[in-house]
């Protein structure tokens, strides 16, 4: 499906972010949601959407006889708390083929994110294809390059403010990373942190902790899109039991499940996943990977 009209919403959000002062990030979020909703109205076969602030999931009686229908899952502004301090933010999306009658996701058609920084970068992922685009002066996104693999630098991205609240195994893994000269890079907006790991390599970690025992990353509109993106480059998206999060996709009943439920999340390359297995074996941590 050609999503160029949808990508136009990201162009307009970038303009709002860059040229308008926002003391209240919520105002930017409301306008961003409106831009995305308006873009989705241009697609007859995108019959609904799921987001943090608003949701529209059709009932069987609401849909016609289209061969394929889709839902757009999105997070309009990731890192809203960074808006007022002019730190990088972004948008996340995932387009899924949807069975309205059975209320289930059939497959992922595309996932991606747009990052609003010094330049506006759009990363799109389809099966075994991940492409990086940059917004040009003409107001269109232009392909810069295809991404063939995740980077191989020794990085980890983790909010160490919660270091004493993490499980013992996480504390041991982080300590091990430090002894092996891994550098911690943490911005505080998921798009920024995951983009850095995708391009440069390493491990994105948002484990559960005492304050958030089920994790803090939204399963539907944040974790699943990024897990899909990483998997198209041979990487992994894992929960706190180090199991693939995308395995949950076929079992989700969107009209019945908690659309705002959260999960712990680990994102990494295949190489870093192999390193993680070695680390856990070396540290005698009780998990099967």
Question: What report would you give on this structure?
Answer:
The chain has helices spanning about 5-20, 25-40, 170-180, 190-200, 220-230, 270-280; strands at about 45-50, 55, 70-80, 90-100, 105-115, 120-125, 130-135, 140-145, 155, 185, 205, 215-220, 235-240, 260-265, 265-270. With about 290 residues, it is an alpha+beta fold. It is globular, with a radius of gyration of 19 Å. The two termini are about 35 Å apart.
Q: How many strand elements?
A: 15
What are the low-pLDDT stretches, counting only 5+ consecutive residues below 50? none
Instruction: Report strand order across the widest sheet.
Output: 2-1-3-4-5-6-7-8
Count of discrete alpha- or pi-helical segments spanning 4 or more residues: 6
What fraction of the residues are assigned to beta strands by DSSP?
25-35%
Order of helices and strands: HHEEEEEEEEEHEHEEHEEEH
Class from secondary-structure proportions:
alpha+beta
Question: How big is the Rg?
Answer: 19 Å
Q: Span from first to last CA?
A: 36 Å
What's the helical proportion of residues? 25-40%
Shape: globular
Largest sheet: 8 strands, mixed
On the 0 to 100 scale, the average pLDDT is 92
Helix-strand layout with pairing:
Elements: H1 4-19, H2 25-40, E1 46-51, E2 55-56, E3 70-78, E4 89-99, E5 104-116, E6 120-126, E7 129-135, E8 141-147, E9 155-157, H3 168-179, E10 183-184, H4 190-200, E11 203-206, E12 217-218, H5 219-232, E13 236-238, E14 262-263, E15 265-268, H6 270-282
Parallel strand pairs: 1-3, 9-10, 9-11
Antiparallel strand pairs: 1-2, 3-4, 4-5, 5-6, 6-7, 7-8, 11-15, 12-14, 13-15
Helix pairs in contact: 1-2
């Amino acid at each position: 499906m050609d999503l160029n009209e949808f990508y136009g919403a990201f162009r307009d959000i970038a303009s709002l972010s860059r040229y308008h002062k926002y003391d209240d990030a919520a105002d930017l979020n409301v306008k961003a949601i409106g831009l995305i909703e308006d873009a989705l109205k241009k697609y007859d076969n995108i019959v609904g959407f799921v987001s943090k602030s608003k949701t529209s999931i059709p009932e069987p009686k609401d849909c016609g006889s289209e061969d394929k229908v889709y839902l757009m899952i999105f997070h309009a502004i990731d890192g809203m708390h960074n808006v007022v301090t002019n730190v990088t933010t972004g948008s996340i999306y995932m387009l899924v083929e949807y069975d309205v009658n059975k209320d289930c996701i059939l497959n992922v058609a595309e996932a991606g994110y747009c990052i609003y920084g010094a330049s506006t970068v759009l990363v799109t992922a389809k099966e075994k294809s991940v492409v990086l685009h940059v917004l040009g002066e003409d107001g269109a996104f232009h392909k810069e390059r295809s991404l063939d693999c995740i980077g191989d630098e020794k990085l980890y991205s983790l909010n160490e403010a919660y270091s004493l609240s993490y499980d013992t195994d996480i504390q041991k893994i982080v300590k091990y990373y430090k002894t092996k000269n891994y550098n911690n890079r943490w911005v505080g907006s998921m798009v920024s942190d995951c983009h850095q790991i995708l391009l440069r390599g390493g491990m994105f970690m948002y484990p559960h902790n005492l304050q958030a025992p089920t994790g803090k990353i939204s399963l539907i509109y944040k974790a699943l899109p990024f897990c899909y993106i990483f998997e198209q480059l041979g990487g992994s998206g894992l929960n706190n039991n180090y199991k693939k999060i995308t395995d949950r996709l076929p079992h989700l009943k969107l009209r019945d499940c908690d659309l705002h439920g959260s999960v712990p999340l680990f994102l990494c390359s295949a190489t870093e996943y192999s390193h993680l297995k070695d680390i856990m074996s070396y540290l005698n941590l009780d998990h099967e990977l």
